[in-house]
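For practice. Supply one:
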Amino acid sequence: MSETPFKLATKDLGKDYPGTVALDGVSVGFAPGEVHALIGKNGAGKSTLVKMLAGSVVPSRGQIFCDGIEVALSSPQDAFAQGIAIVYQELSLVPGLTVAENILLGRTPKKRGIIDWQATYAQAAAVLERMRVDIDVRARTGDLGVAKQQVVEIAKAMSLDPKVLMLDEPTSALARHETENLFRLVRGLAAEGVAIVYISHRLHELRQIADRVTVLRDGRHIDTVVMVETGVEQIVQMMFGEVVQRERPGDLLPGGTTVMEVQGLTCEGKFAEVDFSLYEGEVLGIAGMLGSGRTELLKALFGAEPADSGKVVLQGRSVDRPTPARMKALGLAFTPENRKEEALVQAHSIRANMCMASMGQIASGGYITRKMEQAVVDEQVAKLQIKVASTEDAVSSLSGGNQQKVVVGNWLSTRPRVMLFDEPTRGIDVQAKQQLFQVMWDLSREGIATVFVSTELEELVEVCHRILIMREGRIVDEVRPETLTADELALRCMGEN
């Protein structure tokens, strides 16, 4: 593989922003037929490098080469012309359009100025057939599950016949069996000679999918290693130096007071007859495969989606028809899975995003000033170790991990009694995850209860006092994390003994 010319390479690539160096002298090459993982903690420079290779960001210095020839990638169109395609973590599909329309978006074949539907469906089907996946090209994309939507996004990129395909956190929203299917697809594309650039925070995936691994830290290229010759522990060391892996403190015990009780909560087609109690200071996990009803349950508890029957008792008060305003007033906070669309206003500042939920508490006499907000913001920036140049920068300028911390800080400012976390560690690095777990434990010490939903079952086993298992919309089991492994928990989620 080392003798194969690189399809895409950089030499001394750098990018400066006011007050910070985002990327500093990075030289790396991506070869055809290999899966090359790009790894680094949040703020390491991965996003900056990928955006420069995708033509979205112009380098401050250095060179980019395609097939050994220097190129200028000043726009995404320049990257497309060089055969470079990218699939971002946040999918860019149009839910109301068909699979075929999404795959060929903006490029549907026409006959006499009118879309040629027969040719459109045939071309889209040919792309999927090449990828060896079976998806109905006439299906409405919004009706597909997340895993199939991810495949459609990749098919859209593959329809450009790229030489280089960059995948940004492609498995962040996928269950284990769906991840394995995606890996088979990625390996098949690599076998056709496509150079795959694979960005991920899931270090346990590397041995399954990566041929080589490049590690960035603080904007610098630390090393590129062959995966079969390298342990994950060595990669973590390159990423962070020394990282202290925390385990749930043994003396961190929930109290005997019930802070929330859920009775017979049902939402037709999503979940049914859900009953459980949550205790003061408890970290309660909810495990289950995608589609088991976990996210829908959390949204119903917060009042973001109406339940058909059942009730929630919060802080001793029965709430038959919850609304977000009522639940927030009663001390409930909710960080949704999709932070980009449901938790943040990307064009607004970090300061504004961190004060959205607590405006009523910050305001004095019916008005609010930036000075009032800043004290709250400064507290959360320090508490959550959010890496920012200025809180007046747009929240979209932050890495995924720091954006997640802004979401958490926004709700911590409301001084909640119960926190609902839906996939809070999605797309963030090991260090940021550890900081978030510490936040949950700190809340526990204050008597604040947490409900924690995660696809990463290892996290639930490490962090929670108790875990509820959901399957097909029902809670089917309750386990103590000290009694089983993450693999055993996965089997129970799938209904296997």
Remarks:
- The mean pLDDT is 88.
- The chain is about 35% helix and 25% strand.
- The CA atoms of residues 51 and 57 lie 5 Å apart.
